[in-house]
Amino acid sequence: MKRLMIALMTMLLLTLSATALADTLRVGMECNYAPYNWTQAEPGEHTVPLSAGGYADGYDVQVARYLAEKLGMELEIVKTEWDGLIPALTSGAGKIDAIIAGMSPT
Q: How far apart are CA 30 and CA 58, in angstroms?
């Protein structure tokens, strides 16, 4: 499992290398699926503020923080409805740079 996570993170880092020209890594997630990602009203030790208010936390948020840190970028979590995650990434509008959520290709 650890090898799979390392491989996935490496692939994501390579994919995000084009984004490295930007200062901020915008990651889309639903922020409604604990323990992976959720929204809370108060800040915590590992939370990331959301532009719409509240704070995101969870495993996915920690992975996003790690990736942003390794890329030397600021992290912005973009709270997005589940059905809107892929369109936000693929629309070409630059709404988000990556999705970190429990998705599969199907």
A: 11
User: In which domain, by residue range, is 88 found?
Assistant: 2-99
In the block, tokens 């030790």 appear at 45
Contacts of 80 (CB under 8 A, 6+ apart): 28, 29, 30, 88, 95, 96
Burial annotation 23-38 (CB, 10 A radius, 16+ → b, else e): eebbbbbbbeeeebbb
Residue 9 has pLDDT above 80, yes or no: no
- Identify the pLDDT of residue 4: 58
* Per-residue H/E/C for 39-79: EECCCCCCCEEECCCCEEECHHHHHHHHHHHHHCCEEEEEE
Q: Is residue 30 part of a domain?
A: yes
Domain CATH number, residue 31 = 3.40.190.10
